[in-house]
Amino acid sequence: MNHLLPIITGTGAKRSLTGKLGMAVHGSAAIVALGVIYTTTVVYVDLYAMMVVFLSAMLALLFLTVSAGPNGRVERPSFVDWCLVIASLVVGIYFLAENQRIVERITLLYPLEMPDLVAASVLLVLTIEATRRTVGFGLTSVVLAFVFYNLWGHGLPGTLGFREVSYNHFLDIMMFTSDGLFGVPLRVAATYAFLFVMFGTFLSKAGGAEFFYNLASAVAGRRTGGPAKIAVISSALYGTMSGSPTSDVVTTGSVTIPIMQRLGYSKALSGSVEVAASTGGSLLPPVMGSAAFIMAEYTGIEYRDIAIAGIIPALLYFLCVYAQVHLRSQKLGLRGLTKEETPPLKGTLKNGGLFILPLIALSSALLMGYSPTYVAAVSTVVVLMVSMVRRSTRMGPMAIWNALAVTTLRMVSVVAACAAAGLVIGGISMTGLGGKFADLVYLMAGDTAFLALIISAVLAIILGMGMPTPSAFILAAVLVGPTLLGLNFSVLQTNMFILYFAVLSAMTPPVAVAAFAASAIADAKPLEIATGAVRLAITAFIVPFAFVYGEGLLMVGDPIEIIVTCATAVIGVLLLSIAVEGYWRGRVNVFPRLGFGVAGLLFITPNGWAVALAVIIVAMAIIGTPHLRLHSQKLPA
Fold it and tell me: DSSP assignment, residue 636?
């Protein structure tokens, strides 16, 4: 029994297949990417048929490239793996062959045939197993709980009970409609989320990731705390392309964490800086990650509007991290890189400055209102054009083929998580649990909107513990979104609030997946890294409350109001950074430090009286800090 526990609770190990099998898997992955490009940009195909083929192919690749458990066979697939691969392909072929009948039948009116029930049952099991292998026990247990609730929850007393749902009814909704497995999350993964990951992969393979790191080094490397500031800037730039905190940590952290440690940063601090910066990358426009795409599809809000709304909150996030890194480095006396260790800015821009063009093209296309699919495709073409300018960055046919394959393999775990999220969403809508949960939140919070927001934030973080951000967002949006909308918050405010806390779950203890990724590089305890990252990014837990009470931070409303709100928020973030670090031109004692913290919160609050009170508190805190009082007296009149 003990040897089965790691297999049940742990994720599988990734395989690096070689030889003929490795070439076949690599080629199949590239072909899947070409299929996605063709069906999303060139020709219109039936959406249900496209997702069936996509999911079938991705499941087959998943069982070939991910073992059954952490100690599973990594050199080649096992017999069980091959059985699962064959089952994935056979089920996909069956659904594709029966596609016309499936899309034309009336759900629940025409009974499912026995082959339908068998194929749907097999697909359900394959999806759950794929989720367990890639995401782990957290999301898998949630999916299983909802499956059991759907099938046997009608026996529960009170409001949790519902009308009995038969197994045939369950499969009919889950597998033969767009309300379950083939719902919004999987649809996003199979279209523009895939294309944006492809954009990031091509940009990285062409040398864009190296350019952004060198640019960050040239700009901030020689300043106080230079290595940590490099991590903040480079992780922000790379994170907006990858959209995955864990991927960002592994990619940029493998370079920045050792450099920070070499120059005197503790193991835990170096990991915390990288985790805080990488997590924020998923909130930084123009890309923001898969969860933002799902938000656009789920809410009907234009992705362009979501990206615009996310600019100020994301900049406040990185201002907080950057300011705290600066203050902490001053407090600890940590130096920057030497002139010899930093690349020259002029040379960096000369050698790779063209890589800024794809980001400009992406942002411009979004602002002009083009669809995310078109934006991602055009931006990838711009990357290819830029790469052709220099021989050192030129992507030939083989490099392009490899980038296509890498894109598909990177999406394997995302697809599994999105498919699982679809099962949960289908279960929630089938049983009416969303409305019941809203009633529960109302019961706990009453008419207090602030308490309802706190409950929603905690739930989003809990749902995100151990599962990808897209899954955490969509589950929280379905469960608590109606509650917040019922409190007269707008659709944009509600879903941006949920998105922020779903993303922050990646670094929030006790299950902080990004911190676990960083711990292997930093050689530090994950909990210490996660705690430090939360401290560095403390503003991110406060700003969402500010923009749900005043849309100025989301760039909605009167221009003057937006400017004033943003300006006071910047001051508030800086004051909070001082309060958290306890340092400003010298150490700040307890009571002034507390004053700076309270004033920072008041400055972020969109209220004129609160700002006026904050000014008084700041003045008192400065008077109570001798070295600041002496410094202010020396300033010219």
Answer: -
Quick: pLDDT tens for 277-324.
988 888 988 878 777 888 988 898 998 899 999 999 999 999 999 999
In single-letter form, the type of residue at position 3 comes to H
- Over the range 82-102, which residues count as b (16 or more CB within 10 Å of their CB) and which as e? eebbebbeebbebbbebbeeb
Residue 614 pLDDT greater than 80, yes or no: yes
For residues 473 and 467, what is the distance between their CA atoms, to the nearest angstrom?
Answer: 10
Look up residue 223 and give its amino acid.
R
| Three-state DSSP class for residue 583 | strand
- Let me know: does 69 contact 10? Beta carbons within 8 Å: yes
**Distance (Å, whole) CA 315 – CA 283:** 9
Secondary structure letter of residue 586 according to DSSP: S
In angstroms, the CA 481 to CA 621 distance is 40
Report which secondary-structure segment, H or E, holds 34: helix 19-41
Look up tokens 């902490």; give the residue: 328
Angle at 535 between CA 221 and CA 315, to 5 degrees: 60
Degrees to nearest 5, angle at CA 380 with 377 and 381: 90
Both tokens assigned to 16: 């690096």
Q: Is residue 219 scored above 90 in pLDDT?
A: no
> 8, 126, 122: which is closest to 59 by C-alpha?
126
Closest CA to 29 of 223, 230, 201, 287: 201
CA distance 486 to 501: 19
How far is residue 204's CA from residue 146's CA, in Å, rounded to a whole number? 39
Lowest mean per-residue pLDDT among 20-34, 170-184, 352-366, 509-523: 509-523
Q: SS3 for 525? A: coil
Judge contact between 296 and 557, C-beta under 8 A: no
- 13, 69 in Cβ contact below 8 A? yes
Q: For residues 159 and 247, what is the distance between their CA atoms, to the nearest angstrom?
A: 41
The yes-or-no verdict on residue 512 having pLDDT over 90 is: no
Structure tokens that stand for 382 in this block: 């711009």
pLDDT digits (tens, 9 = 90+) for 250-269: 777 877 888 888 878 899 99
- The answer to whether the bond into 185 is cis (omega within 30° of 0) is no
Can you tell me the mean pLDDT for 76-97? 95
Give the 3-state DSSP-derived string for 207-247, with helices as H, strands as E and coil as C.
Answer: CHHHHHHHHHHHHHCCCCCHHHHHHHHHHHHHHHHHCCHHH
From the CB of residue 42, how many other CB atoms can be counted at a distance below 10 Å? 9
**529-556: b (≥16 Cβ within 10 Å) or e:** bbbbbbebbbbbebbbbbbbbbbbbbbb
- Closest C-alpha among 407, 420, 518, 410 to residue 467: 420
Rg (CA), the chain: 25
Cα 324 from chain centre: 23
ω into 510 cis (within 30 of 0):
yes
- Residue 551: alpha-carbon gap to chain centroid: 23
Q: Which amino acid appears at position 45 of this protein?
A: V
Task: Give residues with Cβ within 8 angstroms of 240, minimum separation 6.
Answer: 281, 282, 284, 285, 286, 287, 288
Cα-based torsion angle of the residue sequence 592, 594, 599, 605 in order, rounded to the nearest 10 degrees: 170
Range from 67-71, 194-198, 449-453, 628-632 carrying the lowest mean pLDDT:
628-632
Half-sphere exposure of 454 (CA within 13 A, CB side): 7
Give the long-range contacts of residues 438-444, CB within 8 A, separation 24 or more. Answer: 438/480, 438/482, 438/483, 438/486, 439/159, 441/480, 441/483, 442/483, 442/486
